[in-house]
Amino acid sequence: xxxxxxxxxxxxxxxxxxxxxxxxxxxxxxxxxxxxxxxxxxxxxxxxxxxxxxxxxxxxxxxxxxxxxxxxxxxxxxxxxxxxxxxxxxxxxxxxxxxxxxxxxxxxxxxxxxxxxxxxxxxxxxxxxxxxxxxxxxxxxxxxxxxxxxxxxxxxxxxxxxxxxxxxxxxxxxxxxxxxxxxxxxxxxxxxxxxxxxxxxxxxxxxxxxxxxxxxxxxxxxxxxxxxxxxxxxxxxxxxxxxxxxxxxxxxxxxxxxxxxxxxxxxxxxxxxxxxxxxxxxxxxxxxxxxxxxxxxxxxxxxxxxxxxxxxxxxxxxxxxxxxxxxxxxxxxxxxxxxxxxxxxxxxxxxxxxxxxxxxxxxxxxxxxxxxxxxxxxxxxxxxxxxxxxxxxxxxxxxxxxxxxxxxxxxxxxxxxxxxxxxxxxxxxxxxxxxxxxxxxxxxxxxxxxxxxxxxxxxx
Length: 460
Hints:
With 460 residues, the protein is of the alpha/beta class. It has three domains: 4-74, no CATH class; 82-91 and 354-458, Aspartate Aminotransferase, domain 1, CATH 3.90.1150.180; 100-348, Aspartate Aminotransferase, domain 2 (3-Layer(aba) Sandwich), CATH 3.40.640.10. Helix content is 42%, strand content 20%. The protein has helices spanning 11-15, 18-26, 29-49, 59-74, 100-110, 130-140, 151-163, 184-191, 206-212, 239-249, 276-282, 307-314, 318-322, 326-338, 342-348, 350-356, 359-374, 415-423, 450-458; strands at residues 82-83, 87-89, 144-148, 167-171, 177-178, 182-183, 194-198, 203-204, 217-223, 235-236, 253-258, 286-290, 301-305, 379-392, 395-410, 429-430, 432-434, 437-441. Strand 17 (432-434) and strand 18 (437-441) form a beta hairpin. Helix 15 (342-348) crosses helix 16 and helix 17 (359-374) packs parallel to helix 19. The longest helix is centred in the first third of the chain and has 21 residues, at 29-49. The chain is globular.
């Protein structure tokens, strides 16, 4: 019997094949050589475990397998995808897509140098917050502003700067937990502040806060429960009541509004989401919120409020560890500028554009896509159906927005297999499985992506 090991091509033989020459041009010689050696070592190991005759592939066949393997391994984990899930602020898919204005601003400051901490007017050193401070104060009515890398960082930084070693009074019904093991009590502990719980899960009155205040109290804190709702027999102290108590007792009030609405979202059918402006008008000393949720900007945590407290926060040693870079500042500034004109914001900020798109417009897009998908032989049926989209991102969890979906049922494979294939296509698409069918929600698919969806599914 021939020794099958003698029939294995050498590394050089494989590198000379057209398939691997193409990969070398795209990747690098060293990477391909390492992968070829690994492939051959694995192949030899498999040969040792085989009994009886075993056919060794030709050099060309083996090279094609190696090229496919390298291409698969070389594909970056972070790729642009199409969101057909109907979850608008999908955390797993990067939350809010950015406005073109923000993308262009990020590109402009990223190509070379930028005036991050130098004043163009004086030529002297400045502060990076100057890139967005005026806009944040203009839009919210605050005296001052600061920006950290996310709202969790903004919360930690604020508590560390304002209440290290002191008690911060919070309602038991507002001790939130969000994704990624973020728990307010743990953040409070990490900041050096001491958590003082008051009230009960469903009822906390302003008198509960007042009775807990003493000489060791550093702040009163209200936290918007953006990712859950306590309903039924409930009561909660309003920000207006807490501010009045804070003024009466000379204790600062921190309002963590979470998702951060700059406009009233009830116009989109989404109610009970507090606006930053309301908190400012109520007199809260410090307000915390996200830049990448209901504002639709890049990921960051924003702090606005009274100048004396914001100054303490920006001068805290932890601020440098949590500061944002020039790309975030550029993207945030460009997004905020759009909010000066709400009509322009609804047109250009993708989050607002999705929420303000009419059902008629969504249905019209679906009707244009329908015939192309119905013509595909591997679908049992493709129909236009009405459904509900969710805001997502831990925002307004119990409310939804009406939407139009393309409901797809495969012919000879399972719905899960269809979902897997579409997700692994050249243009990865995420849909949702519901009622034993695959749904593509047009509210979260950008109009410019409609053709890409058809092409990706047609090429399966």
